[in-house]
Amino acid sequence: MGKTEPMAVYRVNKRGVAKARELIDAHQYRVRTRWADVQPRAAEQNAFLEAHGWKEYATWHLALTDGAPDETKARYAFVFGDFRRLHRMGLIACYYRAAEWEHTEVMLAAHKLLLYLDKSKA
């Protein structure tokens, strides 16, 4: 049997969850987008980091990677927005990916945010 690489361990980024809730409360979200078209690519991430720094960059992610050094991209996981607004499909992508790889706490955080967003639209 072949060895498998160890699975990254994530914990919920409370500041990211708070940022998502703030964006929802301020109606700074998009309900219908193609996440593949709007999720931040490396160039957008680098531009955002240069303009806003690591502290603000961190708030756009639902999880922190255990063991990864602060102020590295590897530290922050499960991005949910485009650095301007939250995207419902970004939350769904976070939920799906976390569920797929059994990162239960991150999956539940994404699920709760989806419910919060959907309730706020009503």
Strand arrangement in the largest pleated sheet = 1-3-4
Number of structural units classed as domains: 1
Beta-strand residue percentage? 5-15%
Shape: globular
Q: What is the arithmetic mean of pLDDT?
A: 95
- In the predicted model, the low-confidence regions spanning at least 5 consecutive residues are none
How many beta strands in the DSSP annotation?
Answer: 5
Number of helical stretches of at least 4 residues: 5
**How many whole angstroms does the radius of gyration measure?**
14 Å
Descriptive terms for the model:
52% helix, 122 residues, alpha+beta, three-stranded antiparallel sheet, globular, 5 helices
Give a concise summary.
52% of the residues lie in helices and 13% in strands. It contains five helices and five strands. The strands form two sheets. The protein has a three-stranded antiparallel sheet.
